[in-house]
Amino acid sequence: MNPLNLRENKPLGLFGGTFDPVHFAHLRLAEAAWCELGLSGVRWIPAGCPVLRDAPRVDARRRLEMVRRAIADNPHFELDAAEVEASQPSYTVPTLERLRSAGQFGEKHSLVLLVGADAFSSLPAWYRWESLFDLAHIAIAHRPGCPVDPETLPEPLSKICRQRFSAASEALSLAPAGSIVNFPMTPLDISATRVRQLLAAGLSTRYLLPDPVIAYIEEHRFYCQER
Question: For the whole model, what pTM was predicted?
Answer without folding.
Answer: 0.93
